[in-house]
Amino acid sequence: MKLNQFGETVRLAVLGLGSRGVGQLKTLLEMPDVDVTAVCDSYQDRADHGAALVNEARGHMPFISTDAGECIDRSDVDAVVIMTSWETHIPLCIQAMRAGKRPAMEVGGATSIDECWRLVRVSEETGIPVMMLENCCYGDTELTLLRMVREGVFGTLVHCAGAYSHDLRDEIGNGDINRHYRQRHFLHRNAELYPTHELGPIANYLNINRGNRMVTLSAMSSKAAGLHEWLQTHRPDSPLANAQVNEGDVVTTMIRCANGETIVLTHDCTLPRFYSRGGVIRGTKGMWMEDGRLIYIEGRTPVDEHDWAHRPENDKKYMEEYLHPLWKEYRDFGIRGNHDGMDYLVLRAFIESVQNQSEVPIDVYDAAAWMSVTALSEATIAGGGVPIAVPDFTSGRWCAREKSAVRTEFEL
Q1: Tens of pLDDT along 63-97?
Q2: Which CATH architecture has domain 10-135?
Q3: How far is the C-alpha of 328 from the C-alpha of 156, rounded, in Å?
Q4: Rounded to two decimals, what is the model's pTM?
Q5: Which of 61, 123, 327, 355 could crosslink 364 through cysteines, CB 3.0-4.6 Å?
């Protein structure tokens, strides 16, 4: 990735212009070699708002539609960025590939294993790469930890954990008012609904799909009380006050990998709490925890011989010592976009892959594997937590993909 160099203009269709879509559209419009020639949302006012942002930034109005297909099929569209509701990501990716356009899709879980397989098969048949826009893979902390993992600071990795722990009761509870699709998933499903923010970085640490893979998964769900009580308190006159909420307040998913590591994911969005992605790395030489920003490295962390508990230290000096080269460059370049720069970096990786007609760093096999966790967790929760197999979407190629993958920004 060359942050100070720009190439040929990439003409984009941007699909989905809710709050996330608008934020990403603004980030894309910060790139001088990106033009947005078509915008789409199922709500006309959102599509019009997106078009106005393009006009303000570029001095022309893009094509506007509430029909995604009309945008995908246009001759002035080179690639498609999909930021619509979770359940439409894969169908729209497939539609884009069938039209010969490179798609990038925002994060979210899959509704079925079958659609994950269809995503992979269409990409293989058409030869068109798919990129998942998992911004957390580009976070400064996550890339710095990846460097530490690669340099053996933690020793041999044994276990990782992550979470999407975020009090979203207001957003979910008012979803019918503010037109947010997340609400219907919480009302009707019971699963690890949003796995990739935590799983994406972990998959990089553990070389998932590149010399390793996830093989079995088991999930359990707590009762669903938090959102129900919030609705009764804050929207007592709404029909939702007495609606059944299926999504458990805390969903715990356990995964075992081919090379023996274990992963624990936690989905926790309907109880009062502070925000956290709950990162944990455990290895034979030390550990790191996001909550409290704590680290313990054997032989480096000061130890009081009279303190049997071996107190951890703050991770700040390690974050500075092992800062990933991409982030050194990015800090000099100047932080842009939302989420402290993660969004800019992940979108930039996609744009450059279109310009260079190259592979993408977070590819269709990653997307299928990570998104499948939602459908798999839903099935195992319904079955009482019985472990089930995780499909190998690479069809055996994970054994030999480690050196052939094009992931330069994730390497040192």
Answers
A1: 999 999 999 999 999 999 999 999 999 999 999 99
A2: 3-Layer(aba) Sandwich (3.40)
A3: 26
A4: 0.96
A5: 123
